[in-house]
Amino acid sequence: MNSDIINTILLYSAAEAIAVYFMYVANKKRNNNRTLTFQTKNISIKVSYTFLYLLISFLPLFLLIVLKNDSVGVDTKSYKAAYEAIAHRTLSTQQSAWLGIGFRSIATVFAFLHIDYHIFFACLSLVTILLFYQTIWKHSKNPALGIFIFISTCLFFQTFNQYRQMLAIALVFFSYNFIVPKRNLPKFLMTIIIAASIHNSALIFLPIYFISKINITKQTLIIYAALTVLIHILYSPLLALVSQTHYGQMYFGSYLDLSFKLSTILNLLIRLVLLAFCIIPYKKMLELDNKAKCLYHTIIICTIIQTFVVRSYTFGRLTTYFFVFYLILIPNILFYIYKNNIKLLYCVIAFFVCYELTYYSSSSAVESGYQTYRFYLEAARPQVKKQ
Prior knowledge:
About 35% of the residues are buried. The radius of gyration is 21 Å and the shape is globular. Strand 1 (about 35-40) and strand 2 form a beta hairpin. Helix 9 runs antiparallel to helix 10 and helix 12 (about 220-235) runs parallel beside helix 17 (about 290-310). With about 375 residues, the protein is mostly helical. A two-stranded antiparallel ribbon has the order 1-2. It has helices at about 5-30, 50-65, 75-85, 95-100, 100-110, 115-140, 145-150, 155-160, 165-175, 185-200, 210, 220-235, 235-240, 245-250, 260-280, 280-290, 290-310, 315-325, 325-335, 340-360, 365-370; strands at about 35-40, 45-50.
């Protein structure tokens, strides 16, 4: 194995270990009121130990994004070029349509203030990671496991590449705060609209607010299965309809519109395993935590969309809006159903370690441009492809 890849694995592993460990410590100390005081001549600042542990957990992930070279993330240079085009008022019609009004508006404000694009993307990354952390911290019964799944499923590494969509996904994930524990339709809609202005595919999550009121029963599961079969039967006319949307015009017929890729088939199998793990105890889980029915709807829809990814890779980006809710559901199932059974917890961890290693060694990591990490001031070298 190439030494650059080995160094990258060690770097990622160190960041992951720090993030997970200090999230674990923060959760253990979350009800501890001890504070640390920082004293200057005129100012006295008290900071809780829990906050400090969360900050230490957050920093290695944030710094990996901020300190990366432009060669890390295949879309990085395209975003840089677009930002510079906004700054110089030379943005093309194609670039403008690609960026979306929300992202373009934010970039325009930063460019108007003559802020370097690295700082601009640092601010976007800060918001993205903070939204993930806040939602996991608030809703997961084991936030350390939630962060571990966030990294090991390579969702975190997608922030190296998919700036807009990962920010939109983080906003969608954050919108869960307005579904449970208290429903707030105006705030939910506002969050989804902001997410859609950054990446319009976020609109696919809009129906969840209403669907989440439906109880999960055997009949519900049968209806979902029947709808999946029906949509596959009507795939051609529905595809023609979806192709007329802005998202469809951008991606259908592009290099992403590939069918029966090995990676999509493997991803479907993995999602079926995860779905089975969560569905098996669904009755007991809903008795102990009725709020989980929203999470069940998201993972079922995620799996349904994944069946279409096999037919067109273009649908792949849509599944992530729903897949992220495993970061809450799996830790909560282990907490409520299995009482944090240590052997089962180790099995879950081993499963996601294998997932991470497999995904990282696949062509997807090479194509996405994060298999070899380079720091900002480091000379970029060509990605090493597997023979």
